[in-house]
Design brief:
The complex is a heterodimer of chains A (274) and B (458). Chain A is mostly helical and 274 residues long. Helices cover 65% and strands 3% of the residues of chain A. Chain A has 11 helices and 2 strands, in the order H-H-H-E-E-H-H-H-H-H-H-H-H. In chain A, a hairpin with an 8-residue loop joins strand 1 and strand 2. Chain B is of the alpha/beta class. Chain B is built from 14 helices and 19 strands. In chain B, the strands form 4 sheets. Chain B has a 6-stranded mixed sheet with strand order 6-7-8-3-9-10, with helices on both faces. The N terminus of chain B is likely disordered. Classes of the chains: A mainly alpha (274), B alpha/beta (458).
């Protein structure tokens, strides 16, 4: 997998899903991103991500449904006297909320290949020389994150067995302080190790340069074409925007814009399968 | 005292009247050190907190360049002035392997990790693959080239760290207690790798507490104590005397805890399968076995920190003292003494904190900030933090990690006293001396199974 090709595809997905307000195109991008991930990473590896996306998307949709008492198609109403919840619950608010949920889900799926399909070194190899040192430092610090999580478990367990019990926010200092100190010590040791191995001694070379094969070029080209054609379609009056209020209407579709979205399926054909 | 000349072929590094103060410290960590490091293996020995790690860090310039502080005297390696040359520039000449295998890796894949140093010095990409392959072979880890670093055992990680410095073809390789966190097999492989490096003509400087095997091949020895360094002939070294036989004063009592058909593991992944085991008051059970075999999981189940997936755990009510594998997990108070006081307060125990501080040789360190201590001293501070008073159940995970022989002896005495006072004790340890001195029974924990090795002592 090539990080530059992944970046191009992710950018195209994010651009279209954030550029348009039309839920039809957003859904097309969502499906493209989901199918790409499912075929390349596999559903099993996506399990946690799917749960997170479902929870966040549903929360966003419900939040709008509950808080935006706008629109003409009233499904039911709660008394205004109920603080925060009272008012009319409308089909329009539900549709607008669902569109927001689709946007968030598509954006998460579009960015997910960076964690599901790439290793940190893939990203570092793809960085231009000027960013190589910064990228290395960031990648090294990312290696510490699992240690912080482990450290939190170890410290809270050790303190519980030593008689500590959580009693209010201040009591957590006895867990948080050692975790923070341990993390800082870990960072210092890692920095010491990097220094001892010549980090910063010279302009870095690379063990493995990011190489673009024809499949990667195809994905980059398709992604670029998707963005350009979607913008062009919009400029020529296609790719119409959509707004749920005041009365719900069906989103309009036009073929060139839809084809632009379909180009985002290209990685399904080009990237290795799970 | 050596003469101030550039080190020649037989002198890889030379420190002359070197004194070093850490930042904000009035007392020097190294005090007037004059010592040469020659070809072959130089063993750096001495008590915990004596200055071994500081001395080793001088050799590649981490002291003073990374740690700051003040330095006086001169230090040279391969003709370069260490005080004037930044560590990153010395990296080609001096390779350094640290104590903790988990905090050295930058990359996620082994071969990339080995190439990291070469990338830093701008080594030509075309020749890098051969260098990496060569280093992997020299460290005996060529079969791990494509593996993810996080999936490796501690011993494998340390050998990858050795490969990483070998790739730079340094003239000198420094190893700071590289086996302190490894099981016997992992330790043996790392020591073998160090011996191979010296046979290949490199100067190897290694700090260790377990010296038996190294002393058979050491060309020289430097003893560091209280900031002073002294060269000694390896032939004068003698193993520590016979270990203390902690004779019990009363027989074990009633059952204190038991596991019956226990299957357990973190994140609902079973690490232990169908374990039946128990321990009595006034008894020491030692758990042995390789890293990753399930010893820590077993201790956590006995402690009640991990619920079993199946089976039952029974414990008599009472205070549990648990030393985790990472002792820093415990330490957060401003002084060693306040760590002890915290535990005694929580246990409503009236024992004087001085008792355990004296027993573990921490009198002089009682007002020090625990995280400023050396790794061996920290381990003792953590023991002092969990073991004061009269705990009913004592669970210690690798309690002698990084400890010198004095501290080990103190620990043996303390555990024996707790045992005789009626505490049920479980030790997870690779330390055969500790096992021999204290264990009434030994259980082998390996591959998720627990096998009793029978009674060690009547």
């Amino acid at each position: 997998m090539n990080a530059r090709a992944v970046a191009a595809w992710s950018f195209a997905c994010l651009f279209i899903v954030l550029f348009t307000t039309n839920p039809a195109y957003k859904t097309a991008v969502l499906v493209a991103a989901f199918v790409t991930l499912a075929t390349t990473a596999g559903i099993r590896r996506m399990r946690r991500l799917l749960i997170a996306v479902a929870v966040i998307g549903a929360f966003d949709a419900m939040l709008n449904f509950v808080s935006a008492h706008l629109g003409r198609t009233v499904l039911f109403a709660l008394p205004d006297s109920i603080p925060g919840l009272g008012g009319a619950y409308t089909l329009e608010a539900l549709a607008f909320g669902l569109t927001g949920g689709i946007t968030i889900a598509a954006a998460i799926f579009a960015a997910a290949p960076f964690s599901l399909l790439l290793q940190p070194h893939d990203v570092m190899d793809a960085l231009p020389g000027a960013l190589s040192r910064t990228g290395t430092a960031i990648a090294a610090s990312m290696n510490l994150l699992p240690l912080v999580v482990t450290s939190f478990g170890e410290v809270s367990e050790a303190q519980r067995l030593r008689g500590w019990r959580p009693r209010g926010p201040r009591s957590w200092a006895q867990v948080v302080v050692p975790v923070v100190l341990t993390s800082v010590e870990g960072s210092i040791q890692l920095a010491e190790s990097m220094e001892a191995r010549g980090f910063g001694a010279a302009t870095r070379s690379s063990f493995q340069k990011s190489k673009l094969e024809w499949q990667h070029w195809m994905v980059i080209a398709a992604s670029a074409l998707a963005v350009v054609s979607f913008i062009a379609a919009h400029a020529m009056g296609g790719a119409k925007d959509w707004y749920a209020y005041p009365s719900l209407t069906a989103p309009q579709l036009d073929l060139p814009s839809l084809v632009a979205c379909l180009l985002l399926f290209t990685p399904v054909l080009m990237w290795p399968r799970d | 005292m050596p003469s101030p000349v550039h080190p020649g072929a037989d002198v890889a590094a030379r420190l002359t009247d070197l004194t070093y103060w850490y930042p904000d410290s009035a007392l020097p960590a190294l005090d007037g050190v004059s010592v040469d490091f020659g070809d072959g293996i130089t063993v750096v020995a001495g008590p915990s907190g004596g200055g071994k790690s500081t001395l080793l860090r001088v050799l590649n310039g981490l002291v003073p360049h990374f740690h700051g502080g003040r330095i006086a005297g001169s230090a040279q390696v391969a003709g370069m002035d260490i005080v004037q040359t930044p560590t990153r520039s010395l990296a080609r000449t001096v390779g350094f392997v640290f104590q903790d295998p988990e905090l050295q890796a930058v990359y996620d894949i082994v071969e990339r990790e080995v190439a990291f140093g070469l990338e830093n010095i701008g080594f030509p990409a075309a020749a890098m693959r051969d260098r990496v392959d060569e280093a992997l072979v020299q460290a005996g880890v060529e079969h791990l080239a494509g593996r993810q670093v996080r999936t490796l055992s501690g011993g494998e990680r340390q050998r990858v760290a050795i490969a990483s410095v070998l790739a730079m073809r340094p003239q000198m390789i420094v190893l700071d207690e590289p086996t302190s966190q490894l099981d016997p097999e992992g330790s043996s492989l790392v020591i073998s790798a160090a011996i191979r490096m010296s046979e290949a003509g490199r100067s190897v400087v290694i700090s260790e507490h377990r010296l038996e095997r190294l002393m058979q091949v050491a060309a020289s020895m430097v003893v560091v104590d209280a900031g002073h360094a002294e060269r000694q002939e390896p032939s004068t070294w003698r193993p520590a005397g016979p270990s203390i036989d902690a004779v019990r004063t009363r027989p074990p009592g009633a059952e204190a805890w038991s596991l019956s058909g226990v299957t357990a593991g973190p994140a609902r992944d079973a690490v232990l399968h169908q374990v039946d085991l128990g321990g009595r008051r006034g008894e020491v059970l030692a758990l042995s076995g390789p890293n990753g075999g399930g010893k820590t999981t077993l201790l956590r189940v006995i402690a009640g920190a991990l619920e079993p997936l199946a089976g039952t755990v029974e414990r008599r009510p009472g205070r549990i003292a648990y030393l985790p594998q990472n002792p820093t997990a415990l330490l957060h108070r401003p002084s060693v003494r306040s760590e002890v006081e915290l535990t005694l307060d929580r246990a409503a125990d009236l024992e004087d904190p001085k008792v355990i501080l004296r027993t573990l040789g921490l009198d002089a360190l009682s007002e020090r900030y625990p995280r400023d201590l050396s790794s061996g001293e920290r381990q003792r501070a953590a023991l002092a933090a969990v073991l004061p008073g009269r705990p009913d159940l004592v669970l210690l995970d690798e309690p002698t990690r990084g400890m010198d022989s004095f501290a080990r002896t103190a620990l043996i005495r303390l555990v024996a006293a707790l045992r005789d006072a009626g505490s049920a004790i479980v030790l997870a340890t690779h330390d055969s001396e500790l096992r021999d001195a204290l264990a009434d029974r030994v259980a082998l924990v390996c591959g998720g199974k627990v096998t009793e090795q029978g009674a060690v002592r009547a």
